[in-house]
Amino acid sequence: MYLGDEAWPDLETYFEEESLALVPVGSTEQHGPHLPEGTDHLIAEALAREAANRTGYLCTPTVNVGVSAHHRQFHGTMWVSPPVFRDYMESLARNLTYHGIDRVIFVNAHGGNVEPLREVGKRLHEDETAYTIEWMWDESIPELVREHFSVPGPHGGPKETAMIMHIANELVHEDRLTDARDGGLVEWGAGSARQFGARTFFDAIDNTENGVLGDQTDATPEKGEELFEAATEQLCNLSEWLAGQEYESLLPKEHV
Amino acid sequence: MYLGDEAWPDLETYFEEESLALVPVGSTEQHGPHLPEGTDHLIAEALAREAANRTGYLCTPTVNVGVSAHHRQFHGTMWVSPPVFRDYMESLARNLTYHGIDRVIFVNAHGGNVEPLREVGKRLHEDETAYTIEWMWDESIPELVREHFSVPGPHGGPKETAMIMHIANELVHEDRLTDARDGGLVEWGAGSARQFGARTFFDAIDNTENGVLGDQTDATPEKGEELFEAATEQLCNLSEWLAGQEYESLLPKEHV
Amino acid sequence: MYLGDEAWPDLETYFEEESLALVPVGSTEQHGPHLPEGTDHLIAEALAREAANRTGYLCTPTVNVGVSAHHRQFHGTMWVSPPVFRDYMESLARNLTYHGIDRVIFVNAHGGNVEPLREVGKRLHEDETAYTIEWMWDESIPELVREHFSVPGPHGGPKETAMIMHIANELVHEDRLTDARDGGLVEWGAGSARQFGARTFFDAIDNTENGVLGDQTDATPEKGEELFEAATEQLCNLSEWLAGQEYESLLPKEHV
Amino acid sequence: MYLGDEAWPDLETYFEEESLALVPVGSTEQHGPHLPEGTDHLIAEALAREAANRTGYLCTPTVNVGVSAHHRQFHGTMWVSPPVFRDYMESLARNLTYHGIDRVIFVNAHGGNVEPLREVGKRLHEDETAYTIEWMWDESIPELVREHFSVPGPHGGPKETAMIMHIANELVHEDRLTDARDGGLVEWGAGSARQFGARTFFDAIDNTENGVLGDQTDATPEKGEELFEAATEQLCNLSEWLAGQEYESLLPKEHV
Amino acid sequence: MYLGDEAWPDLETYFEEESLALVPVGSTEQHGPHLPEGTDHLIAEALAREAANRTGYLCTPTVNVGVSAHHRQFHGTMWVSPPVFRDYMESLARNLTYHGIDRVIFVNAHGGNVEPLREVGKRLHEDETAYTIEWMWDESIPELVREHFSVPGPHGGPKETAMIMHIANELVHEDRLTDARDGGLVEWGAGSARQFGARTFFDAIDNTENGVLGDQTDATPEKGEELFEAATEQLCNLSEWLAGQEYESLLPKEHV
Amino acid sequence: MYLGDEAWPDLETYFEEESLALVPVGSTEQHGPHLPEGTDHLIAEALAREAANRTGYLCTPTVNVGVSAHHRQFHGTMWVSPPVFRDYMESLARNLTYHGIDRVIFVNAHGGNVEPLREVGKRLHEDETAYTIEWMWDESIPELVREHFSVPGPHGGPKETAMIMHIANELVHEDRLTDARDGGLVEWGAGSARQFGARTFFDAIDNTENGVLGDQTDATPEKGEELFEAATEQLCNLSEWLAGQEYESLLPKEHV
Prior knowledge:
Six copies of one chain form a homohexamer.
Chain A: H1 12-17, E1 20-25, H2 39-55, E2 58-59, H3 82-96, E3 103-108, H4 114-126, E4 131-136, H5 142-148, H6 158-168, H7 177-182, E5 194-195, E6 198-199, H8 221-243, H9 247-250
Parallel strand pairs in A: 1-2, 1-3, 3-4
Antiparallel strand pairs in A: 5-6
């Protein structure tokens, strides 16, 4: 069920019977020369809407601009500061509880949003307003990702490329895949851009000239569809799991 | 040009040549029993995208949740607090200037956003960051609105109904138009809900049982198309006008 | 009853019996070459004190500096930023409730304060602290204003001129009335300083060289007295009306 | 020169020639059974206006509500929280500099404002916006105070009583002076309400049942006049001294 | 009992039986050419730990950096802004109450922290979270200080010198005591650096070239030990006194 | 060089020649039944001081209380909220730059501080104030950790146990090591406490009854010494590396 399409009387039954909401959260930021700036919010929205369709849970409209200052050196990247983003998401989620929502899944497709969204979740959890968790799509299917791609890459890589090929193929510049790989940084590991244990970069451009990390040349729409299906299934399962919990069990545990 | 669809290298020319951005801003809130909760953001997005297509100026993704606490008593209304909304919009607009944008049009379709967006505009104007103005679609075509509808109404009325009939007809419950009118408040004037000059209501529900103000029974898709065309033209003209100003002339005037 | 003049034991009965307070709020800002910078707070204070005298309700001291950055280009205009103003007014009003006040009228004489004061009212209403409304004197007597003046004007015009002639005639430079009119902008309408529906000015000086909007040459002390009497009556009526409401009826309505 | 009474063109010369402003700051709070709640702002305003009249320096309207939560248990005390007060005063003072003011005297008559105003002064000093100092009237004439009164008392005592007798005699309940003394705490010293070096009270009511500290029975209008004259002279001298400083000498010193 | 050294199960009994915590708060700032920058936090920590040892009350780790901007012109001074400091201390103290603490002593050794810590105490007192008081060591033994030193001095003087001689003698440059006195300001009184009643300095360097106020040449480790013993005793007494109060008696008094 | 021990004149040469500071940051929170609550700040302080001693770079006093709300259910855990922590660390680091510091290493020993400290680093990097990085000791020697311990565990495990055995052996309850393991959660992996890709816990107590994650029974002081030596060496190397960078190279890269 998509909140944005419903008239208010048609939501009454939902709020009487359910207390879960899916909130898609993305970013608008550079994704290399081959992918659109909307990549992250397109993915978040597509997954959240699909899972909502399949399960019947409520999906809200999408938050399109998140924490992306680290991509600002590339044309068109949009962002808000982390404190502002947290407060916006907190206010948005807190107000959903006015209608009876007491559990929220932030359906997230942008790494830079992960920690801010978790912090928002903690705020709402600590004061027992709602149980709000962050779900990052590719963290739900790590094995499938590794299986499909030689170098998954964390940004603008084959995971995202395949997903957009599936969701909005017309927005992928397929003729630029090789250039995208060659102009960026293919290998990115736990030790990259570190010195003696410290992370010594702040911005994407510190590591990659064209904004890409990974090798997207083995992305295909078919793989994208598989990822999409698998991630949707995970999200559906998560939704069912969360909806099925006793609310008491979701509250902070008592002091020992 | 729609920012969300472009890869970053394809935006370079735009930022070299232009410095204007259109930012659609809506709300997600009750619009009576006949219209979807997404009404405002659907309208803002449709107008901004169309004007961007026609003029070539840049349109960003949409901000879907705004200042709507006064509609909260109706199922599904989403909102953030005014300070949070202002800070989010300010951060978003301020950061666009990093790419060379120095004038922004908030393409707005929600009355509750008007004053907060103007305040954001003042912040950016006072410190000479950018010239940021708020444009509310129906304020650009007041005569056409009066001509078409017997009781335009400020919320959920025939203006918005006709627009959604044109933009997303499948989301309008046409069979509920009469009920929508009869269950709400038709006549809404400058003196409504006032006592001795003071506005004495806080929430929509103080004035209307079903969230509607106006009489939408004379809304048609054809009128919606006319409104859409007329408003789009106004927005295109505004964009051209603003893009054509000398930046110096947009800065705050000197102290006398 | 004026709070500032009373010793605390003499206020006990009032707080036992009543729960209404009038808080005058003005500005200190240019009002053209003929009127003093204190115009707005002088008017707000005079009306609030008089209504309090007549009705017996409590009037507090005046807040003299408000949201006036848009007049800053003229010598002497004082202002605080809107967020700071809102927080100050919110804290002031919230703390009045400690003594049993649960309804507040902001007696306002400055257009720039209207929206900020309404937002403060919403904050206190949403959390059920108090019912706090903004009352702008000239909005309570629109017909009388239109009747008396050919071009009322929103700022430094005949309304305010006549009021100050009545309240503090020695502060009006009568010999400058014609110059005030001729050096400013006489005609100011809904469409002034707009482009294609968007308000395209930020500061008073964008529209008027001497800070005046309107034609004050037909202002007289007698008209000022009439305005003052009429507005005071409105404020008295509003006070009685508000004091007479059941508190429950002033709280936010329940979710449908 | 009183800013509130002047039309803006008449302030031009002042801002060209001078850069000092006096800002009266008071409180609205209980002052015992014999004095009005406005005591502090009445004193601050009277002194600042008089000094401005005598010296020609600019005096602004008064800030009437300050940091007084510690008097809240007595009817009618008004207050804002310290962070809100500081931000309001900072914004007000910072914006004065737009007109060329670079030194400000907060003419203060309330102990609870002292530290917050000094902190505001530090903010403006550290970023080299303005040299802003707090002046508390009775700290300028300690010997005269000791000479005139057997037990000066810090709050509602003979200092303030005599001052209000001089400024607004009709607001003093002379018939309550003895009761005021007997119902409060007469002797208040450096060791009062302390335990082993720590201040162990938060509110006035922790120390005094009627809000009074001191013995006001020896207050007279004549003494009040003497205090007023002496304090005004101090303020005039301070104004001349401050106006005469080189601005460079008022800036923070360099790092060693 | 020192919290930092205990494993959590060993704290259970304490929180069952007691509700008091001592929180040492110092600064890291210049203390003249003869004393270490850690002077204030060394003193605060030593006193709080010792009192906790003797009484059995709980001492927490130390807050080492406080409100010291006024010493910034001297190498190495560290500081945070007052609003940040207050919020940090408030959050720290508020969260202690989660374990059952309802009374806190800020064991303070820095004058610049006094007012901010008292303000934090007021916040927690007003909302009835905890009774939190500030204790400044030298204010607990004023007579002993006066007895021992000819010119105690408020900063870098003999009080602090003797204390550090006792606590960490190796950190005192005894060979610089005479130079410290001669290069600073020896006599510092209530009227120092004032003009007509107003404090006209912002930074230590405005008054003293080497950061010292006072004459430390008569400081000895023996006197330091005496001060330490006496202040510790005061703190022990204060702790016992505070622990012995009924919690109800520590709450804000009712409105009259 | 340890800032807290130095008198200000003795720091002059350092600030002339160097621009690096090490700031130890820990937490005060439960670390299982066998380790002291001070574990994290003890480790951070010991490493930072040792590296400063060996390299000559400047080490500041320690920040002892950080982001630890997720351990609050265990007695004695202290914490401040993340926004407050970030602002405190930002203010502290920003003010160091007044003395010429332009690069800072947060020597961190607490996982909950990692993201907040990185966000602080971004703030200072974006506005080109300083290059501030977070260094977490155990992330600098992952191989050594894996080599020494069968189940390293992220909290209260053998890494931290061995370190405290080396740094402050008297604070380790060696007799509780087996109980610590058996009462906690030994195996903690990337998939622990997750549902379908989402992290579904908020607090330590959600996963472990006694606060321990890992198996500390193979911890020894000798291993602790090895870890300490290895980590110190990494920190020394990092300090030398960072001090050796051209400042220009540390600034944000230009827009493409």
